[in-house]
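Milestone M4 deliverable, item 7.
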Amino acid sequence: MKVLEMQNIGKSFNDLEVLRDISLEVDHGEVVSIIGPSGSGKSTLLRCATFLEKVDFGKIKYLGKPATMVNDENRAMYVGSSQLAEIKNYFSLVFQNFNLFPHYSVIKNITEAPLSVQHRDKEEVMEDAHKLLRKMGLEAKANAYPYQLSGGQQQRVAIARALAMKPEILFFDEPTSALDPELTAEVLKVIRQLADEKMTMVIVTHEMPFARAVSDRVIFIDGGVIVEQGDPEIVLGNPQQARTRQFLQTYQR
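Output delivered:
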């Protein structure tokens, strides 16, 4: 069964059509990187997949469970709030600007949602949180506050917070765009480790060498449509579409 299925997705903001008839599937353990120029619809696609934006057209399913149905004109109709709440447990999203709660300690940032949203056992949640901090190399920072951390450390806390929800799939929206190169390397190392552990991930990124190394599939989006997708060695090393070649040449200059 697919973790995520998005079929014929359309999204507009007023008269601006941002996504046009996009279809995307993600398998268990698959790492998919989404690349493309600014304004191409990459982040909007992630926001639609995680219900931060509502799609106008198309179907969204997680683990075969529909989040939207469509009418005769393919217009999207969302399922009820209790069904959506259940589906929201299947994914987590890591933002480019961390979005940590500044007035919460690191450990409280990580444990708050599993306790208050998922109502899990406190002892189990705390144990998981400390394991995640060890994994992120941040065990000594459990009682620190976000302002006391570097950008790279804050992003690793954000990843730990996302993993604490035990998601089936993890979304990253440009996870290194707010970081300098040294801190970028820290965060990419963590994501690469998750890929090695077969975590299912969709990563919007501008780090082409990283996308090539870590992805099972790369999707190039431009103008709200999927222009090209496939094996990273082909899409990034020998693209078949002229628009993909043009984008990569511009990128490499």
